[in-house]
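step=encode ok
step=design start
structure_in=
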């Protein structure tokens, strides 16, 4: 099981500042803020806000990668998430979505898929009484391939490009995106008790 309870810190979770990356010439990932108390059952939790993220315009549709975790940052190998179950609490603090919905996404070198068939609840005011839970179905009609680098498409994957099964079978990073906004989302997005249970262990 993959589990982030945030008892001692942010555990490698960041946000992605695409516009800052353009200026700097390389990816800019900003560490989330860790709070010792105030999470589910008054536990630790993390949050990010508009000062750490910006719209990633190469994505289709344009996305904000509000919460992002690269397994390599914490010394972990890629993981098979086909049919895995995700559980998470997400909460907004003065969060202005401007029409956006929240989705889970997975990433392997050069390609990202958003689980567009399963919007995720963000509560406002209090943490939800129960976490959002969903299974990562290995079915492309439920997902959207938002980005695919031509370099990796031809060098890394089989003919036909990077399919969902390729990416879910060897996930390098994952996180939560905001999609569908008519102006850039403002406010804080907080997370607690993130878990992934691989298929066969549920």
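sequence_out=
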């Amino acid at each position: 099981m993959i589990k982030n309870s945030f008892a001692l810190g942010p555990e490698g979770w960041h946000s992605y500042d695409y516009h800052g990356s353009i200026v700097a010439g390389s990816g800019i990932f900003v560490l989330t803020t860790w709070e010792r108390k105030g999470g589910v059952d008054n536990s630790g939790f993390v949050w990010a806000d508009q000062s750490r993220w910006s719209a990633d315009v190469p994505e289709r549709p344009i996305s904000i990668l509000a919460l992002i975790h690269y397994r390599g940052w914490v010394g972990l190998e890629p993981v098979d998430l086909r049919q895995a179950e995700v559980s998470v609490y997400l909460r907004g603090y003065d969060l202005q979505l401007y029409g956006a919905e929240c989705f889970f996404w997975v990433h392997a070198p050069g390609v990202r898929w958003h689980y567009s068939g399963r919007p995720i609840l963000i509560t406002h005011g209090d943490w939800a009484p129960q976490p959002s839970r969903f299974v990562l179905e290995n079915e492309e009609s439920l997902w959207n391939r938002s980005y695919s680098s031509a370099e990796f498409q031809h060098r890394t994957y089989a003919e036909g490009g990077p399919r969902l099964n390729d990416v879910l079978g060897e996930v390098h990073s994952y996180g939560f995106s905001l999609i569908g906004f008519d102006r850039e989302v403002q406010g804080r997005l907080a997370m607690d008790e993130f878990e992934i249970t691989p298929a066969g262990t549920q």
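step=design ok
step=annotate ok -> The mean pLDDT is 91.
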